[in-house]
Amino acid sequence: MTYRPGQILLFLLQSVTAGLALAFLLLYLLPALGLLSPGEDSELRYPVHPDPATEGRVSYNRAVLVSAPAVVNIYATKVTRTRPHPLFQDPLFRRFFGDQEADQRATNLGSGVIMSSDGILITNSHIVKEADEIGVTLADGRQILAEVIGIDGATDLAVLRIDLNELPAIPIGDSDRLQVGDIVLAIGNPYDLSQTVTQGIVSAVGRNRLGISTFENFIQTDADINPGNSGGALINTAGELIGINTAIYSPSGGSQGIGFAIPINVVTHVMQSLIEYGHVIRGWLGIEAQVVPPDMRNSQGTQQPGVLVAGVMQNSPAARANIIPGDIIIEINGVSVDSPYGAIQMIAERTPGTSVDILLLRGWQEFRVQAIVSERPEMEGAR
Predict the structure, then answer these.
(1) Of 33, 60, 62, 167, whose Cβ has the fewest other Cβ atoms within 10 Å?
(2) How many domains, the chain?
(3) What percent of the chain has pLDDT over 70?
(4) Is the pLDDT confidence value at 136 over 70?
């Protein structure tokens, strides 16, 4: 039998049409027959369109919800009376122009953190010291005056109390577990913009010798900390307080990505002492410690760690232990001393009245002395 070209073309078109129909039928029936996995079925019949509200989203909203209600705004006001020009003190001028004396109010802006539900707050001492009035604005908008419980200028911390109960206390974390690279959030009141959250990482821990306070052991972070953030909270991703924001490194006064916070483990120790005693009890030897100059190390032929005793206060524990200027402290209670700050910190952590064993180098001779630690006096420069 001979087929015409038109018949052949018609046959081919019918075959292709039938094949396509069969293919679509199989694609429809295969899932029902269990020959495709659920994932394959959904991809074939229901293309996935990710929900932008949930898919690929990294949020710290839960951490903020837990901690932000405990962060407050602080307004510390100092009132100063201006003295008018002597001319206005003349009785004739006062008769016509009245008393020209006037009060000027200067307000220091900062942040604070509610540490307990009965009204204990923590903030920086540089915000509230010498203030005549301290106003607190809570996250829910309530406003109230605060009283100072205690101030510790050596760590730049202050404890306040407000007369409110059932307050949202912030969860407390453990700053000793912090590691470089951990995500942190800073919450505070920058530029009086009300509560603001910024995010960064832990850039370094144990920062000291910054000249911010006497006892320094800062967390460094690149979370934006601006004027008004001081005294606010540095939290981890669980919403736990791990530091109190204190200072920034900035020639211009704005955030440069280098901020410093006081670790919460230091904060809680200072807070408890201020509440119980009104001040922080620290050990004290009465020495001025400095880095050992290289020429002194070379002349004495030692490369051991240590700090130079540059001065000894009269009638101090160091003087009574026969420590003299020029001595090099190598060890305190068997622990090597490698910096003046380290030596001061080790002594400060001792309870007044306890004894410390000190290994000294005097000239070329090493010897040990026992010193009874006293309580550190409240005086500038005391070590």
Answers:
(1) 33
(2) 4
(3) 72
(4) yes
pLDDT higher for 125 or 58?
125
| Helix, strand, coil % in the chain, rounded to nearest 5 | 25, 35, 40
Q: Within the chain, what is the greatest distance between any pair of CA atoms?
A: 139
Alpha helices in the chain (DSSP H): 5-29, 38-45, 61-67, 91-97, 125-128, 264-277, 294-300, 317-320, 340-348
Active-site entry in 67, 152, 156, 213: 156
pLDDT per residue as tens digits for the range 328-341: 999 999 999 888 88
189 plus 273 within the same structural domain? yes
Tokens matching residue 175: 């700053």
Is residue 230 annotated as a catalytic residue, yes or no?
Answer: yes
Domain residues for the domain of 261 are 175-277
Instruction: Please confirm, yes or no, whether 269 is among the known catalytic residues.
Output: no
170 found inside a domain: no
Question: Is residue 129 a part of any domain in this protein?
Answer: yes
Catalytic site residue 140?
A: no
Report the pLDDT averaged over residues 312-321.
Answer: 93
* Residue 138, φ and ψ in degrees, nearest 5: -80, 165
